[in-house]
Amino acid sequence: NESQERMGLLIKEEAIEHVRKIAERERAPMYVVGETTGDHRFAFEQADGVRPFDLAVDQMFGSS
Q1: Is the model's pLDDT at 57 over the cut of 60?
Q2: Which pLDDT band holds residue 62 (cuts at 50, 70, 90)?
Q3: Angle at Cα 11 formed by Cα 5 and Cα 17, nearest 5°?
Q4: pLDDT, mean of residues 21-39
Q5: Phi, psi for 42 (deg, rounded to 5)
Q6: Distance CA 28, CA 9 (A)
Q7: What pLDDT is attached to residue 27?
Q8: Which residues contact residue 29 at a Cβ distance below 8 angstroms, ignoring those fewer than 6 apart?
């Protein structure tokens, strides 16, 4: 049974191309999937503006 890992990484926008070059060199797929906004929410927004997932960060992590 083979398991696969998925990892998320927060990087500054100006570092995206540098990280992309490293990912290409290592033959690792890389996708930019969003951005941080400072509103303390974890949300996914579709191209049509619908947000199927929109949750306050404190609801996910409590007081930690």
Answers
A1: yes
A2: confident
A3: 95
A4: 91
A5: -115, 110
A6: 13
A7: 94
A8: 23
Chain center to CA of 5: 15
Alpha helices by DSSP H, 1-64? 16-25, 57-61
Residues 6 or more apart whose CB falls under 8 angstroms from that of 36 comprise 10
Mean pLDDT value of segment 19-47 = 91
Number of CB atoms found within 10 A of residue 57's CB: 11
Measuring CA to CA, which residue among 56, 60, 63, 12 is closest to residue 36? 12
Token pair for 32: 């930019």
- The answer to whether residues 42 and 53 touch, using CB atoms and an 8 Å cutoff, is yes
